[in-house]
């Protein structure tokens, strides 16, 4: 323990807090792996810093990206963050698969405690710092374009949300280098995470990282909902919005109502840990069941926050690559809304085994199954969208097809888990782990990857490499099946989740297959990065400046790729669903507007990054009991907020002449481009103009 | 040309279906049910699977068909880019899931009540067991026999077993897959589980709720023996000279992994209630006394 001035200055940090020191003192494989991970973080940070400094890009990054309030740039930053965190969490997943495959009747490669950290960070990162940033980034980029808006309703709030999430992610990364992370899983159930059982910094890291992220996400929800309600282009009635906007709306509403219970749960747990309260302790009237209720009151809607945006992506992708209208649009909207509402009525199915009476369990079981109805409707509607269409098997479409098949299997196991008597024998086993990965990998990650492949040409002006996309697809899908189908069997064989070691030899073959699957998934991730690299290298021949590489249907495809800062030179009047497709049919898609106006856009602001830095510093101080740092950062947060309220000059004006110049330059590119048939869309002939569109 | 799948494909398919089932045959799985509860759970698994096929099979058959028939390269197929609604299909699309979920709902409601873990099982001379979750072991108290065991649950075949559960540490969950389960054990609370074994044997029992670095080693053997053998075992254990006194319990409740099962004689009456009450009535206890202090008073 540390004392005196040292404690005042550095709280409970001591030499043994550092992964490197621990590995130096006892160079076991377990500690070397931990030190290696810490080295990756440190060296990665140093390398990034050095490269940016050497290329003299700090000012560029700060002025054009970090302080930008442009929803498109914020969206891209969210997705970049998600990619970094995805990489870490996939590596952790592979480590865990290796551990379980190796540790059959013998010690594995990491110690049990380290294994506990691995599954806790893997889950927390995948949910809060991979999935959430990915979907928020995608909505951020696409939704304002689809409804014909220039930005989100609250551009500054958008930046604050981003940087709070980054702050949380930085905390997750710091925990690799200094201290240890929680071993309490992504759900952090007390009393295990209380002081009486875990007095170290781990649960505190978890609490503050999740709190930062959940606050940011709630603000994002408010932002998106208001944007959709208030910023639609004239004539863009709710029932003319693309389905992706509908799912975004439902997700925003879910975020507004579902994130606060999580923030309350982590705040109460923090009170228990820091100020000796007894909300969830074993003794003095604490009750851990209250935590379970609060957490899953967030946790179940969260599942639909994760899945609905992907449903939106699939609706766009399947319709576009089937060259056909979305089947059952209204049906899909009602199904989405039904899912959003029902998602608040099923949280108890996460703890059927806590001893409620049969009436309660049966009620929540039936409610859970009911969600299966609108979900089933959606699956049928997507298939009917392909029916009587012309289906092209591009990379986003391949992911969508893999999604449908895989998701249906996951839905089946979900219905099984919804039956309480079945849940009793497979709850907390690998069957459950297989189930939720079976929902979230196709139902979230495939959707995000499909959306990334689909909208990438819009955001950067060139298509992603098709061949590497297909390789990535092959690895992701085969990897998924090999990694998770064995877990269903292992769960049915009675193997609990979160096992650092195994003493049943009959589990071994299945664990080996799952480990192979883990490596394939990692290969899929690497293939995605290779694809990005290859595509950047060959961006000239894959460039689609006209902006409509897929003969798509909604507004965002009717502008340049990449779009100008203000999105639309002239806000369009909407008269129908699929407005851009209708315009192409009428030959009016690329008509110049009658006149150009000055456009007012928000000025850059330092507030977001400053609040992110201060938030992370405050959280770090709280984790390590560095009270001066926590207090100073807390004061800084409010100082920045108050100072910002005095800033009056927050808009800039882009003159009409400049808008006209940029727009006409793009129109001349349109005029020079050759419209191509769908057979050629993955060839260099594709410049982003569909055949017959500019007639 | 021979109809059907090539031999390689067929054997692969067979392997995919048969391997999981044969795997379950050699493991502590509820597919190898040894009692009425697990047997019903196993049957229910197949009933639910069969019902779900009504929703799932159309997708597995319809999707490949649609993809093949309406692929870009097939110019013979019907192409109707503006067709986006049909009332007939709408009824089917909503109707089939509604009907299947309605049927499943009825199955769910009745089985949840029939297999309520709190419901006593029929049968004479029930055995009472009180399970206390400790880090990383289970203590089983037999209040009527005044004996206790650690990491070995001995039960008579054919007689209902009623288990009360609590925890003297973090939350845990007790499951014996071949007999049924599971239910959480929480400090200051009593949960219940009713099980029965149909045939003698040794069944794997475990904690499924992560509780620290010894978690993966926290399992126990459930020994189902003929009724007479059970009574003889209980009488013999009661004769033993290893009482579960205050000091022993204090040692036992520390974090540790127990290599071999232990049996205790002379377990004081009301021990389970005192362990539970320790967390229920704060005025009776100092805040942070060592676990199990009061159990011996």
TrEMBL record, chain A:
Regions crossing the membrane = 32-53, 74-91, 125-143, 155-178, 205-229, 241-271, 291-314, 326-348, 360-383, 395-419, 439-456, 468-490, 510-534
- Give the range the annotation lists for the signal sequence: none
- Where the protein is mainly located, per its record? membrane
Does this UniProt record's set of keywords contain Cell membrane?
Answer: yes
GO molecular function of the protein, one example? cytochrome-c oxidase activity
Identify the GO cellular component terms for this protein: plasma membrane
Residue ranges occupied by any Cytochrome oxidase subunit I profile domain in the UniProt entry: 56-575
The family database entries (InterPro entries) matched by this protein are listed as: Cyt_c_oxase-like_su1_dom (IPR023616), Cyt_c_oxase-like_su1_sf (IPR036927), Cyt_C_Oxase_1 (IPR000883), Cyt_c_Oxase_su1_BS (IPR023615)
The family assignment reads: Belongs to the heme-copper respiratory oxidase family.
Kindly give the PANTHER family that the UniProt entry links to this protein. CYTOCHROME BO(3) UBIQUINOL OXIDASE SUBUNIT 1, CYTOCHROME C OXIDASE SUBUNIT 1
Under what name is this protein listed? Answer: Cytochrome o ubiquinol oxidase subunit 1
Species name:
Stakelama pacifica
From TrEMBL, chain B:
Q: PROSITE patterns this protein is in?
A: COX2_CUA, COX2_TM
Cytochrome oxidase subunit II transmembrane region profile domain mapped to chain residues? 22-119
> Where would you say this protein principally sits, based on its record?
membrane
The regions listed as transmembrane in this protein's record are 43-68, 89-109
GO BP annotations of the record are: ATP synthesis coupled electron transport
Please give one Gene Ontology molecular function term for this protein: cytochrome-c oxidase activity
Signal peptide per UniProt: 1-25
What Gene3D superfamilies is this protein classified in? 1.10.287.90, Cupredoxins - blue copper proteins
Family matches, as CDD domains:
CuRO_UO_II (cd04212)
Q: Which UniProt keywords apply?
A: Cell membrane, Electron transport, Lipoprotein, Membrane, Oxidoreductase, Palmitate, Respiratory chain, Signal, Transmembrane, Transmembrane helix, Transport
Q: Where is the Cytochrome oxidase subunit II copper A binding domain?
A: 124-236
What is the membrane topology noted in the UniProt record heading this document?
Answer: Multi-pass membrane protein
**Superkingdom of source:** Bacteria
Fetch the Pfam families from UniProt: COX2, COX_ARM
Recorded GO cellular component terms are: plasma membrane
The protein's location, in the record's own words, is: Cell membrane
The entry assigns this protein to a family as follows: Belongs to the cytochrome c oxidase subunit 2 family.
Q: What protein is this chain from?
A: Ubiquinol oxidase subunit 2
Organism the protein comes from:
Stakelama pacifica
């Amino acid at each position: 323990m540390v004392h005196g001035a040292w404690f005042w200055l550095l709280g409970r940090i001591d030499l043994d807090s550092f992964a490197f020191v621990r590995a130096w003192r006892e160079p076991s494989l377990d500690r070397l792996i931990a030190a290696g991970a810490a080295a990756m973080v440190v060296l990665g940070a140093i390398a990034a810093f050095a490269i940016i400094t050497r290329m003299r890009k700090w000012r560029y990054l700060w002025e054009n990206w970090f302080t930008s309030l442009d929803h498109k740039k914020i969206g891209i930053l969210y997705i970049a963050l998600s990619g970094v965190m995805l990489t870490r969490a996939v590596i952790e997943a592979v480590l865990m698969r290796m551990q379980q495959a190796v540790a059959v009747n013998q010690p594995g490669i990491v110690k049990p405690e380290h294994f506990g950290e691995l599954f806790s960070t893997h889950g927390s990162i995948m949910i809060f710092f991979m999935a959430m940033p990915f979907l928020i980034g995608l909505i951020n980029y696409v939704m304002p374009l689809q409804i014909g808006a220039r930005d989100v309703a609250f551009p500054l709030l958008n930046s604050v949300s981003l940087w709070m999430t980054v702050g949380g992610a930085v905390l997750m990364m710091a925990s690799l280098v200094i201290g240890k992370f929680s071993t309490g899983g992504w759900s952090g159930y007390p009393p295990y995470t209380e002081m009486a059982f875990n007095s170290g910094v781990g649960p505190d890291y978890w609490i503050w990282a999740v709190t930062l992220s959940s606050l940011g996400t709630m603000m994002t929800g408010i932002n998106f909902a208001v944007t959709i309600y208030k910023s639609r282009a004239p004539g863009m009635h709710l029932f003319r919005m693309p389905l992706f906007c509908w799912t975004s709306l439902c997700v925003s509403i879910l975020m507004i109502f579902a994130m606060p219970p999580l923030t309350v749960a982590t705040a109460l747990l923090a009170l228990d840990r820091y100020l000796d309260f007894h909300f969830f302790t074993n003794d003095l009237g604490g009750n851990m069941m209250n935590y379970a209720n609060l957490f899953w009151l967030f946790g179940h809607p969260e599942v639909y926050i994760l899945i609905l945006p992907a449903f939106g992506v699939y609706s766009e992708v399947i319709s576009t690559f089937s060259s056909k209208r979305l089947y059952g649009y209204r049906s899909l909207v009602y199904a989405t809304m039904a899912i959003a509402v029902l998602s608040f009525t099923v949280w108890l199915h996460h703890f059927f085994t806590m001893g409620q009476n049969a009436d309660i369990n049966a009620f929540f079981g039936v409610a859970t199954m009911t969600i299966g109805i609108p979900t089933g409707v959606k699956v049928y509607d997507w298939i009917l969208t392909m029916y009587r269409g012309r289906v092209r098997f591009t990379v986003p479409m391949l992911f969508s097809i893999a999604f449908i098949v895989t998701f249906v299997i996951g839905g089946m196991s979900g219905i099984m888990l919804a039956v309480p008597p079945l849940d009793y024998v497979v709850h907390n086993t690998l069957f459950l782990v297989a189930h939720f990965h079976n929902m979230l990998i196709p139902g979230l990650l495939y959707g995000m990857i499909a959306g990334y492949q689909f909208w990438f040409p819009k955001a950067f002006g060139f298509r992603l490499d098709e061949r590497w996309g297909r390789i990535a697809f092959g690895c992701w899908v085969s990897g998924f099946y090999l990694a998770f189908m064995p877990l269903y069997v292992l769960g049915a064989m009675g193997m609990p989740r979160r096992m650092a070691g195994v003493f049943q030899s009959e589990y071994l073959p299945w664990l080996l297959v799952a480990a192979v699957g883990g490596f394939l998934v990692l290969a899929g991730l690497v293939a995605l990065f290779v694809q990005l690299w290859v595509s950047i290298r060959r961006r000239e021949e894959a460039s689609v400046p006209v902006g409509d590489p897929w003969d798509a249907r909604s507004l965002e495809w009717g502008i340049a790729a990449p779009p100008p800062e203000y999105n639309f030179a002239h806000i369009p009047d909407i008269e129908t669903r699929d407005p851009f497709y209708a315009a192409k049919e009428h030959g009016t898609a690329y008509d110049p507007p009658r006149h150009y106006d000055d456009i007012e856009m928000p000025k850059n602001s330092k507030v977001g990054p400053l609040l992110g830095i201060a938030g992370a510093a405050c959280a770090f101080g709280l984790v390590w009991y560095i009270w001066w740092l926590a207090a100073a950062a807390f004061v800084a947060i409010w100082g920045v907020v108050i100072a910002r309220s005095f800033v009056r000059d927050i808009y800039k004006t882009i003159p009409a002449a400049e808008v006209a110049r940029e727009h006409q330059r793009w129109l001349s590119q349109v005029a020079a481009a050759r419209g191509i048939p769908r057979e050629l869309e993955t060839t260099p002939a594709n410049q982003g103009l569909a055949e017959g569109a500019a007639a | 040309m021979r109809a059907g799948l090539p031999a390689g494909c067929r054997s692969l398919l067979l392997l995919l279906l048969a391997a999981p089932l044969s795997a379950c045959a050699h493991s502590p799985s509820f597919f190898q049910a040894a009692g009425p509860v697990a047997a019903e759970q196993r049957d229910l698994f197949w009933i639910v699977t069969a019902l779900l096929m009504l929703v799932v099979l159309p997708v597995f058959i319809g999707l490949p068909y649609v993809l093949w028939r309406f692929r870009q390269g097939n110019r013979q197929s019907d192409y109707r880019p503006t067709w986006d609604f049909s009332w007939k299909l709408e009824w089917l699309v909503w109707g089939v899931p509604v009907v299947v979920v309605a049927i499943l709902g009825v199955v769910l409601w009745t089985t949840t009540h029939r297999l309520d873990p709190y419901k006593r099982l029929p049968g004479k001379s029930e055995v009472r067991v009180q399970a206390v979750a400790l880090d990383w072991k289970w203590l089983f108290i037999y209040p009527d026999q005044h004996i206790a065991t650690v990491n070995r649950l001995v039960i008579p075949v054919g007689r209902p077993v009623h288990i009360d559960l609590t925890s003297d540490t973090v939350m845990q969950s007790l499951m014996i897959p071949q007999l049924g389960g599971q239910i959480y054990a929480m400090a200051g609370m009593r949960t219940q589980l009713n099980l029965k074994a149909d045939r003698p044997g040794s069944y794997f029992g475990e904690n499924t709720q992560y509780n620290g670095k010894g978690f993966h080693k926290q399992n126990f053997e459930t020994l189902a023996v003929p009724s007479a053998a059970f009574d003889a075992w209980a009488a013999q254990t009661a004769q033993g000279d290893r009482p579960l006194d205050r000091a022993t319990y204090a040692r036992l409740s520390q974090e540790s992994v127990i290599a071999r099962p232990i049996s205790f004689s002379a377990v004081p009456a009301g021990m389970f209630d005192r362990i539970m009450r320790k967390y229920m009535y704060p005025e009776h206890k100092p805040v942070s006394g060592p676990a199990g202090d009061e159990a011996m008073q």
